[in-house]
Amino acid sequence: MTNKEPIICAFDTETDYSTDYSIVHAGTRGYVEDERFNCYLCTFANDDFTEAEAPQDIDWLKYQGATFFCHNASFDQRVFEQMQKLKIIPQIDVTFVCSADMCAYFQLPRNLAGATKAMFDYEMPKDMRSWMKNRSWQDAVDEGKAKDLLQYGIDDAIWTWKLVKELYQYWPELERRLSHMTREMGWAGLAMDVPKMAEAEAELEKRAWELRGKLPWIGEIDPDTKKEFAVQSKKGLAIYLRQQGLVAPKSLARDSDDCKKWILKHGDKCSYVADMQSLTRVTKHLATVKKMMERTVDGRMSYGLKLYGATATHRWSGESGWNAQNMPRSVKYGVDIRSLIKAPEGYTYIVADSAQIEPRTIAKLVGDEDFLIRCSEGLSPYQAHAELTMGWQGGVLKNEDPELYALAKTRVLGLGYGSGWAKFLSTIASQGMTSVLDMPYDKTDENDFLSWLEYVPNQHHHIEVYNQSDRHHRRHMVNAWVQVMDFRKKNPKIKSSWDAHAHAFAKAAETGGNYEIPLLSGRVMKFFRVRPELQGYSCTHASHDKRRLREYGSSLFQKSVQATARDIFAFQLDQLYQRGIKVVLHVHDEIVAEVPLDNLEEQKAIIKECMTTAPEWASDVPLDTSIEITTTYLK
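Request: output the structure for the sequence above.
Response:
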C-alpha cells in the first residue's frame, strides 16, 4: 500500500437534512457540529474504480495522501473532517479540490447538474436528494429506495470526475490556490466580541418592541380572516390610515419616491408608515446579529465566501446565509455590525485596500498615459482627472477645494462607466453634494440640453419634469448634463472603448453567438448567446444559464475594468498568502489581516509591499494602498 501512488478521485458525501436542520439555517460549521449530523454515504470515482459505502464500512487507509475532487469542497471537506473528529473514520491526510469553483471559473453553472448539462448535454436526475429531505438511510431501505440512492451518489462522483478530466488542467494554479484560501479563510472565521453581540441583540430587541408598540393593529383581529394581523400587515396599516382619512403609499420600500413623499407630507401627524419601515429594518438588522451569534463557536464566527460569485468578472460574493460582502457601513439603530468583529487578545487588524484601483485600471485599459504618469508621481486619480480635464492648477485638491474634489471623484467613478445625466444628478443628490451643480450656466447650455432631450427618444419624459421644476432644480439638471457631456468630450479614449464594445456586441447578436473580452491577465471573459431585444441586447453570463441580462457598450467596459481589477487583487491576495499573512476577510478590494501585536511592523511592511505590487502583466499600473490599524473592523 505505501509504495502505491496516492489515489486521485472524485469524492461525494450524502448527509441527513430536514426542514429545520440544513446548511442554509446553520451554515456549514453549525450544520456539521449539530448533534443531528449524520453522513450515511460516501462515494468515490475515477477511471479505474467506483465505490459507494457507509463511512464506517470503508477502508480509509487506502486513501492516505489522496486528492479528493468535490463538487462543493467547502461542504464535503467539513463533513469528512467532522467524521474524523467524531472518530467515525480514521485520521488520514487528504487534499481537497473544489470542482464547483473550477466550473465557475470557466463560466459554467456552479451546480453539478448544470455543469454536466453544459459540458456533456446530460440531464442528471436530482429527485433522490429532494426525496431524502426529512428521511434517513433506513427510510430509503424500508421504502425500497436504497439502490436508487446508491446510484444517485455514485453518479455525482462519476460526473464530477468527468468534469475534472475535461477542465482541471486548464484551471490556473493561482486560481486553484485562491479556491483553497477562500475555503480556509471562511472556515477559520472571524474573532467576535461576544459580550458586545449580546448587547447589540438586546438593544435591537428593545427597539423592535418599542416600534411594535406604535402599530395599533398588532393584536387586533382581521375582520376577513378572523386571525390576528401580522406585525407588518399592509392591510392593517391601510385600515388604520383610512380611519385618519389617509391612503397608504403604494410601496413601503426604502428607496420608494412615493413613500418618501408620503412621509414628508403626512409624517408629522401620522408615524405609522415610518414606524413600519423602521421596524422592517430593525428586524433585518436583528436577524443579522442573531445569525452571527448562532454561527459563533469558541469566540469565532465561520462564514461562507463564494469564489467567482460574480460570474463574468469573477469577483467574490457572500454566501451561506450571512453576506460578508454587504455589511452595513455605519451605526444603524444603535448597533454597528462591523465593530462586533474584534481582534483576539494579542492581535490587531490591519485593514488595507487597493486604493482607487478601478480608475487606475481604466487608464491602463484605454492607454491614458498622461493619467498614469500623474498617478505614478503620487497624485490621486481624482486630482489627476481634475488637472487633466477640469482646469485645476492649484495644490492638493482635496484640501484646497473639497467640493471640486468630490465632483472629480463622482465624475471618475460614475461617468467613466457611462452614467447618464439623470443618474449622475441622483448620485450627487444622494451624497448631499448638489451644491457642486449650483454654478451658473448660459442660455446656450440650456438650449443644448433641451434640444438633446427632444432628440433622444428615451429622454422625452424629462422635458415635462424640467418645465415643472423651479429655477434651482433646473440649474441642477442642466449642469448635470453639462458635466456628462464635458466628461465624454475630454475623455475620448473611454468613450471610444464603450463604442467599440457596443459595436462588437451588436455584431455578435447578429448570429446569436458569444461575445468574448480578452483580459490582460490572460483570462477571457465571456457573454453567451447574445441576441437583440426590443431595447438593446441581452446575453447570459454563464453557459447554459436561462437568466438573460441586458448589456451595452459602457456596461461591458465596466465589467472589463472590474474583472481586471479583480485579477490584480487576486494576485495580491496570493502574494499575501505566500508571505504568511493571515487574511481573515476581504471585501471587494479591501483585506483584513489578523496580525500578532509583537510582529506588527514587519507584517505591516509586507502588506504594504504586496498591496502596491502589480502582476507582471500590469506592471505599469501605479498602485497605492491605504492602511489602517484597528482592533475592530471599521470600514
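The first helix runs from residue 23 to 32.
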